[in-house]
Protein 1
Amino acid sequence: MNVLLTSVGRRVYMVKYFKKALGNDGQVHVCNSNDLTVAFHYADKSVISPLIYSDEYIPFLINYCKENDIKIIVSLFDIDLLVLAKHKTTFKEIGVEVVVSNEEFINICNDKWKTYNFLKDNGFNTPKTYLTLQKAMLALESGELQYPVVVKPRFGCGSLALSIAEDEMALLYFYSRNVRAVNKSYLKYESSAVDEKIIYQECLKGQEYGADLINDLEGNFRVVNVRKKIAMRAGETDIAELVDEPIISTQLERLAKLTKHVGNVDTDIFMCNGDPFILEMNARFGGGYPFSHMGGCDLPKAIIEWVKGNDVENFTLKQKSGLKAFKELEITEV
């Protein structure tokens, strides 16, 4: 059973996890839009793909799957998810399971304004968020919002163009700078469909947590794995401790049952005065998943077994609390 990881980038650990889960039962293939991709050097096979928004992208993947007997596709990049979700049925018709949620939920996760409204409308705590600079400034004037204010792309990942404004001068500067940053980056593709590219958000003060919300391929809830974030780097968790936080797990279990998402949703949470506030949802393996994996969760193995039609016990997916782990930098010769 061959697996294709799309938009693999530097997620070498995901290649290793899937290779171990497959054993001698298949190969791990990877693709990215350029060859300066470290994961290419760890996969069984690698290929340069067209850009995600190219008209050739999906036909290329379909042809590659047919030629290489690919049975599972897993994307590791937010921008890729929506394109794959739109064509999930097409892949299903050729015998390929794309591990991605439905188009509606991907849209909610990728659009931070829609994320805010979805969480608020469904009774979850989430930071106050404003879609326009004018509304944010009016909220500041009325006392509804206070500095510092988080200024970030409406469509974004990896903390790209995320800033914290301590006063009005910084707020105006970061608005202009972040709009330019979006227009110069890959974020311009999704942002091109909307007038407002930046959102303004209450800056929460509290302990930050991350979590993996895991459903099976039918959208049935399985487990929540929570980690306490100790250090961050470039939007990813760098040091974390696996913890048991029932108040967080209870809220996230409700969220997972509500969304009926497929596979993993990487979620950011703040604990403020004893209450969990959900900040963001990423409908994919996130940068925090390796901590869950080290703690005993093996979602790659579960995905492979589910595609085979086999059941997976929850102990395969549940982490053991108490472990503290660090990411490290490693040099790879190319």
Protein 2
Amino acid sequence: MTGERIEIARPDDWHLHLRDGAMLHTIVGFSAAVFGRAIVMPNLVPPVRVPEEAEAYRARIRAALPDGHPFEPLMTAYMTDSADPADIRAGFENGIFHAVKLYPAGATTNSEMGVTRMAAIRPVLAEMEKIGMPLLVHGEVADPEVDVFDREAVYIERVLEPMRRGFPGLRVVLEHVTTVDAVEYVRAAESGLAATITPHHLMINRNAIFRGGLRPHMYCLPVAKRERHRLALRAVAVSGDSRFFLGTDSAPHPRRDKEADCGCAGIFNAPNALQCVAQVFDEERALDRLEGFVSRAGAEFYGMAPNSDRIVLEKGVGSEAPRERVGVADHAIRVFDPGTPISWRIASGLR
């Protein structure tokens, strides 16, 4: 690292929504331009449940990439009550599935076919524990009686801790953590537990949803929490603890669906995710640890080598204006705007 210019191993995104169809073709390039690999979420309609569906989706992603681009989509299986352990094992052993995603039914976008009873998936969890396959958890209860700001903490108590006691060898990623409770829970674990953190949860608290009115483009699930939770996320992200790594949870929705009577949850940050994280690490005087968080810790958890090529970021150079929206077919997607200046720009990728 020298002055206002840093060079790091090309980062990876360990939690990404690429959607399908026209939206996939429009947005995949934003992630592929920056990240070497990405764990791709399976919550399509219908969801990606078996190896054949994952192979077909991976082929569509690759077909949507710019010619010759080396971006590698890492596919996941959507856990359902009726998931077959044999399908999960086959997909993992054949290198098609890299993980299984557990959505509590009704917890977030396209989670209606998610898990309704943890008892129903015990055979799958036992098989995953045996073969060392990671389980990626959307860590919120879908119980409408639980306050939306408490659903992560309640999930840890009601679901995650009992599951990990029952399957102590299971490798688990608690996705897009948002609370002190989640940070402390992961830090207390002896082994087998990691967490992803998003750029937006590092940069906004729940006030952003209501600043000057209702701001639907700041609404995501899990929702942003109080300032003390945001500060805890920032502290652990820059700490160098390799159990915490970047997962952007970039989740595009058409603007008309975000601003509808019942708006969709999700923040599209793919065009500026790395720049936002660099800004956070700069503000926390921890740029020397940026590479660990975005390029090395996640690869280590998944048993992969860091990317061999490099990427360069520069601070305060050029006159590049932040992208406000992306057009897809006859609609637009709003790009995440943290409401504060972002000084960092991607200067180049070195192959």
Protein 3
Amino acid sequence: MSNLGMTTIEVKKINRSKVYGLIYQERSVSKQAISQKLNMGLTTVTQNLKALEEDGWICRTGYYESTGGRKAQAIEIVRNARTAIGVFLFKRKIILAAIDLYGEIILQRTVEKRFSADEEYYQFLGKEVMKLANSAESNPDKILGVGIAVQGIISTDGSEIKYAKLLEQTGLKTEDLTRYIPYECIVEHDSKAAAYAEIWNQSEIFDAIILLLNKNLGSALIVDGKVHHGKSMYSGTIEHMRIISDGKTCYCGAKGCLETYCSAESLQHEIGEISFDDFFRLVRSGDSKYSAIWDEYLSNLADAIRNINTVIDSDIIISGFLAPYLDTSDIDALKKKITSLPFFCDRNADIIIGQYGEIAPAVGAALPFVKKTIDRI
């Protein structure tokens, strides 16, 4: 639609959105640069900047170096103008995070609490969310909403957790989880929430598989820069791909699933009572026993990635609890294992380490509220 077919109010709204969007994208920009980049008159830019500043969305943060004339003011968004809350529910703990308008963590907290589908747990969850929200933002009106990531498949309408064997609560209504949270809420599958976080921070991602190496393995599929849900919301659940015929029994009931060989829990079972910090210290020092265990783990992961790449020739994002332990030598080893077979020898898939580690699903669950807000300004 051309500007001639729009009302004055619609044109003003579009201009406001364009100006804010550019400032958001550039992070710091001058009024003159906004005018040039948007091909918008200085008067119109000035009016929009004044309105955005009065509404608390942008601020002036100083001056750029002079290029011969008057110094231009640096303009940025007020990144804490609004706050979103993300929650990740495990069987035995809760991870909570507050994020700003750039999706960066303001505050985070982990609380030990065993999941239970009863009023006591729902009340506890509500209180913990409110504690974090009140610590992160003194004005409750500036809390955008609460996203909850769960280890389970969510129904297409978001009203029910269709499959949650790990939480032992398949069929739970999502409204029960949110009953004591006085903000708009959404509930999302943890792996898909983690994928949202990676897409948010890496705009160049087009097609990718995310592997969430948490206590229990998770995964998600990204196609055309968007999380793929599938007809029944099961798309991307690669953790239940069978990589070893008649292998270890998975919680899903099958044998030989990737979950049983590449989750952090499966690795812990192999290494015994030592901590992951000690395990990786021993691996890096060349200990033969633990290096062999780690090499086997990477081999299983490489097998899975090869299988994935026969379906979608894409990049791989490694996120979750184990991700921060991986270094460049591990990535090189994975690539070598993946390309060791002739059919895969010319594959050029990047293996990317995620930015958030175990907290990724909490951040990703909160991001839809941030996106909706910045799109509407």
